[in-house]
């Protein structure tokens, strides 16, 4: 049975065995035993927490403010185990700036001045990166 | 009409033309023709998948375990096309560690051993990033 153009709320979809939810006749998403699916955008006013990873299949992950923080683990460009074969070429790109305050003993950072790539290491020593 | 302090489930919000959902009198979110919005946090026990990108407007993106992996594309700090103008200064910062296992032929990685910013290149050769 078709959905009314003004239907709000739940609707059981027998062909897909799922419980859809509608806004004025538009299917916004559904739930099933696997979880909640949004057919459109999904917007959280505060934090989004993913217990086993966040995956983007198309498009970008964009932070318009704040950092990308990795408490443990690495930043990986491409699938490391497949580097010999078909991985894309990638780069870390950054604007020129000053040495970050946090790059102190037992840590380091890579950044860029206006003309050269730079590094900062223990004791806050800053120097150029060259071949 | 006010919502009961114990109301659960849907409620039509006439003033905002949206379909709200409540938990015990608290509005948790709403849906409309654009998608699903939560007024509070969004928590997934397993994976969150975004079909057209993930955007954080305030705060940080934090991985407390695991990597940030970019299978295709780059890591960009700032908006590359606007680097000459108003982009923020940025850096990649990391704590001392050992060479990553995956940095093998046809790939490379940057890390720090505590006193130097190191690079690892083809065949697993590790050396300082020097001036």
| Order of strands, widest sheet of chain B | 1-2-3-4
- Mean pLDDT of chain B, nearest integer? 81
Instruction: Identify the overall geometry of chain A.
Output: elongated
**Biggest sheet of chain A, open or closed, and with what strands and sense?**
4 strands, antiparallel
Number of separate helices of chain A: 0
Largest sheet of chain B: 4 strands, antiparallel
Strand segment count of chain A: 14
Q: For the largest beta sheet of chain A, what order do the strands appear in spatially?
A: 1-2-3-4
| Poorly predicted tracts of residues of chain A | none
Structural classification of chain B: mainly beta
Task: State the total count of DSSP E strands of chain B.
Answer: 14
Instruction: Tell me the overall shape of chain B.
Output: elongated
Compute the gyration radius of chain A: what is it? Answer: 23 Å
Secondary-structure element series of chain A: EEEEEEEEEEEEEE
3D architecture notes:
The complex is a heterodimer of chains A (131) and B (131). With 131 residues, chain A is mostly beta strands. Chain A has no helices and 14 strands. The N and C termini of chain A lie far apart (68 Å). With 131 residues, chain B is mainly beta. Chain B has no helices and 14 strands. Chain B has strands spanning 9-13, 18-23, 26-31, 35-38, 42-44, 48-50, 54-56, 61-63, 68-70, 75-77, 92-95, 109-112, 117-120, 126-128. In chain B, the strands form 2 sheets. Chain B has a 4-stranded antiparallel β-sheet, with no helix packed on it. Chain B has a 3-stranded antiparallel β-sheet with strand order 12-13-14, with no helix packed on it. In chain B, a hairpin with a 3-residue loop joins strand 3 (26-31) and strand 4 (35-38). Chains A and B meet through strand 3, strand 5, strand 6, strand 7 and strand 8 of A and strand 4, strand 5, strand 6, strand 7 and strand 8 of B.
């Amino acid at each position: 049975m078709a959905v009314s153009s003004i239907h709000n709320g739940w609707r059981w979809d027998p062909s897909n065995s799922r419980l859809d939810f509608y806004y004025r006749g538009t299917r916004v998403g559904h739930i099933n035993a696997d979880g909640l699916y949004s057919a459109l955008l999904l917007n959280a006013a505060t934090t989004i927490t993913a217990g086993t990873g966040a995956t983007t299949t198309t498009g970008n992950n964009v932070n318009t403010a704040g950092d990308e923080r990795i408490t443990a683990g690495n930043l990986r460009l491409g699938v490391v185990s497949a580097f010999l074969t078909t991985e894309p070429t990638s780069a870390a790109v950054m604007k020129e700036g000053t040495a970050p305050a946090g790059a102190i003993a037992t840590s380091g950072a890579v950044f860029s001045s206006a003309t050269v790539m730079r590094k900062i290491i223990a004791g806050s020593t800053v120097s150029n990166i060259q071949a | 009409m006010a919502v009961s302090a114990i109301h659960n489930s849907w409620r039509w919000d006439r003033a905002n033309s949206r379909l709200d959902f409540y938990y015990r009198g608290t509005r948790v979110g709403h849906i409309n023709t654009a998608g699903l919005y939560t007024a509070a946090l969004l928590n997934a026990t397993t994976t969150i998948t975004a079909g057209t990108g993930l955007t954080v407007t305030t705060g940080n993106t934090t991985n407390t375990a695991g990597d940030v992996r970019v299978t295709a594309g780059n890591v960009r700090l700032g908006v590359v096309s606007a680097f000459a103008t108003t982009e923020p200064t940025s850096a990649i910062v990391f704590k001392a560690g050992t060479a990553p296992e995956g940095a093998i032929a046809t790939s490379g990685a940057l890390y720090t051993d505590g006193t130097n910013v190191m690079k690892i290149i083809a065949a697993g050769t590790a050396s300082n990033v020097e001036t």
